[in-house]
Amino acid sequence: MRAKKILVGLAVFAGFSAAFAVADWQLRQRKPVAETVVVDWDSVEDDPQQKLYISWMSLPRYPMAREGTWIEEMMEERFNVEFEPLFISHMAYLRRRPLIFAGGDVPDVFYDGDPVIVQRDAHHGFALEVPYEVILKHAPNYVRYLNEYAPHAWLYAHWNGRNYGIPTYGTILGYPHPGVWRMDWLRKVGIDKAPETLDEMYTALWKFRHEDPDGNGVKDTYGWCPNAQAWFNVFGQVFGAYGILPYDWMLKDGEVVWGGALPESKQVLGLLRQWYAEGLIDPDFVICQVKSSPIPYQKFISGTNGFIVTGGSYESFDQRNKASLVSVITELHPEAELAPGRFPAGPAGHRGTRIWSNAAHVFAFGAHLAETPEKVIRMLKIFEALGTDEELFLASRMGEEGTHWEFDDDLGLQLIPPYDERNAAQKHVLNLVLNAASGFFSPCAIRPEIADKYLAPAHLEYRSTYQKPEWGIPDVFGKVDVVPSSIKYLRDLRNLQMTVYAEIVRGDRELDYFDTFVEQWMTLGGAEMLVEAQELLQTRDEIFQRVGVSQVAMAGSK
């Protein structure tokens, strides 16, 4: 019965992740592999005096926005274009976009959130090939910064030996987020600082379960309720303490390996199995919801759990924001005191957790632009300007200084009322975060030395103390689904792994079943993905040489 509940719970996650795969499968039945359209780029000229009309489906995060915002008009005047912005929600992006494209309504420029989507759009002939040399010619400085901060982003735009679009980066993704502890609980059980090793973490979690940290005389508290359905961070700090990414590609002795099939992963599962048996892990961890993850959050703020692995951002401790973690929990428990936790060090001194890496997304160009390739050149010039012009970038992300935003020496960049209200900011496509690839008209980030100038000093101090980049562990390729056959196997293999891992931790299966899982993983498509991943490593290095990635950056990506 317990195993059945796990499978039912994990099916919720599978339903969300399947939305894209199903739509893609339907599309593949209707549209075969398209022929590659070739453009004579040497003969293409972009006359800046000619106004270009460009339809733009950017990030699906501004569904409330409308045409004619201050930012849009500023960008149109600056670059002599007229945009037709397409504002959609994330759900519409997942479910409606594939069908819209299949009907032939492909925008000039569009957001591809993951490598597997780039591959699909290239496969079906929706995306135009843009050679590296064209991007290097018209956006040389943007390429230089991309190569420095997120060189493996080039793989996101790669398919069948060709490049489809321009990758983006966001340096905010390189800072790992620590967990959060109930500091008042720690003191109640005789601990005076947040744990810094796995042994100290174990002790704190054990005491939270067995020594009545809330003082109500009832054994009704647990240490931690992870989210078993959030594959990208479930037990991430514990696996990180062993230097492992369980759901990602890693390098070991120069070879690409699947982290979740390594012996170290079995060792971690054995440890977690012990923790669960001793009551340290809340048994509800297998039924947490995927998107909003209400169970871990609600259990933490309600006073059932004393540690939460998510929420350890600087903003979580902002008492001015009534929706922040510290504000919400102190509203319910005035005595509550929160403390960010350093990533616990493991037996060999490893510490950290999985990050998405600095590489972000891809902006592809509709294949129909083979007829008007000057639009591609104009967009590359826009990316070049956004990546190099500080004033332009601020305006494209934040709007007009004095109208939409202001700078405070202590607080950093701040939106001015009424634009500080979330719905108003969304409507006007304003975004406070400068070091993320998250603006509608500025989908690339700006260099960290510029973005950091506009952060609060306390934010920079928090980041240097609790979010050291060296504690972030990325996939060797940035994103798992860059491997081509991921579209065939990854979803099912991931769901299998999530289920088996949860069953082993709960004791529904013996620890040695891990070895059976590894055999299943290999048989059900993992072996094929491994071969492709090893080949992709060679492809990556070849691409790096073509776009001019330095030896230093190449070494840092290994």
Summarize the structure.
The chain is α/β, with parallel strands linked by helices and 558 residues long.
3D architecture notes:
There is one protein chain. This protein has helices at residues 2-30, 70-79, 90-95, 97-102, 115-123, 132-138, 140-149, 183-188, 198-210, 236-240, 263-277, 294-302, 325-332, 374-388, 390-398, 422-427, 448-451, 457-466, 486-506, 513-547, 551-556; strands at 52-57, 81-85, 109-112, 158-159, 162-163, 166-169, 179-182, 222-224, 249-252, 255-258, 305-308, 338-341, 353-354, 359-365, 405-408, 412-415, 472-473. By secondary structure, the chain is an alpha/beta fold. A five-stranded mixed sheet has the order 2-1-3-14-6. It has a four-stranded mixed sheet with strand order 8-11-7-12. Helix 1 (2-30) runs antiparallel to helix 19, helix 7 packs across helix 14 (374-388) and helix 14 packs across helix 15 (390-398). The two termini are 44 Å apart. The model is unreliable at 1-20 and 25-31 (pLDDT under 50).
What is the topology?
Layout lengths: L1 H29 L21 E6 L12 H10 L1 E5 L4 H6 L1 H6 L6 E4 L2 H9 L8 H7 L1 H10 L8 E2 L2 E2 L2 E4 L9 E4 H6 L9 H13 L11 E3 L11 H5 L8 E4 L2 E4 L4 H15 L16 H9 L2 E4 L16 H8 L5 E4 L11 E2 L4 E7 L8 H15 L1 H9 L6 E4 L3 E4 L6 H6 L20 H4 L5 H10 L5 E2 L12 H21 L6 H35 L3 H6 L2
Parallel strand pairs: 1-2, 1-3, 8-11, 13-17
Antiparallel strand pairs: 3-14, 4-5, 6-14, 7-11, 7-12, 9-10, 15-16
Helix pairs in contact: 1-19, 2-15, 7-14, 11-19, 14-15, 19-20
